[in-house]
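Our consortium's second objective concerns turning raw sequence data into structural hypotheses that experimental partners can test. To show how far this objective has progressed, the report includes one record in full. It was chosen at random from the queue rather than selected for favorable results. The single chain below, 226 residues long, was entered without modification.
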Amino acid sequence: MPGLEDFLTKLDSDALSALTEYKFLVDEVSLDYVKGQNVRAEFQQMDVALEHDANTGTYILRGANDSDTTRNSLRIWYLPWKHWDGQNEMSGVSKAVLDNRGPGLFLTSQLNGCRFTIQDQSGDGSKVTVLHLAGNYGQNLKGAQARETVEAASLENVANAASRRRYSIGQYSKNPKYMKLPNQGVRSYYDGGMATVLGVRSGGKWQFYAQQYRYDASSFVSTKAL
């Protein structure tokens, strides 16, 4: 069975093909929380391990432990999602800045009713700000409007708003088809089911990918570049 070394070799050669062949799901229990506490962690570097699920053909990305080695684990950037508390509108957003520092792989919590937003500060992908906006704002027009407000506030002082891109998983959509505006302007995608979003730094530039599933781990659809 292929493993981490094979994945990294293929990722370096062709990220989209590698992320189509290797299908990932996120173990949020081991990744999202401060160890030993029921508190969601902040954006940070983490050691994760790959665990193959023969039933679904996917690889589970979980927090590495003492029994893992470099054969099945590596260090990445990880951004947990934040649960909207129902009162403070800004409580449902988590934010990260990615540049040339640290690991060249990024992962965020599984998207299920959530939005992932990318704002390219540098204009060439070398420095980007990303947001994970909670799905529990609601999968309807009201929830979409709340995410719009929170997104705007979170990126108010971040450069290059013209390059903002969004990927949403949920039921509400003005236009469920892929949209791309000229000159790398705002791009929005609305898809059902759930998704695993990963970022790859290559040649000093970040590119993001969504592995789409219809309803569960056994219904993989495709991988798309965001």
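The partners drew two points from this record. The chain has a mean pLDDT of 87. Helices lie at 4-13, 15-21, 28-31, 141-154. Both points have been shared with the crystallography group to help prioritize constructs.
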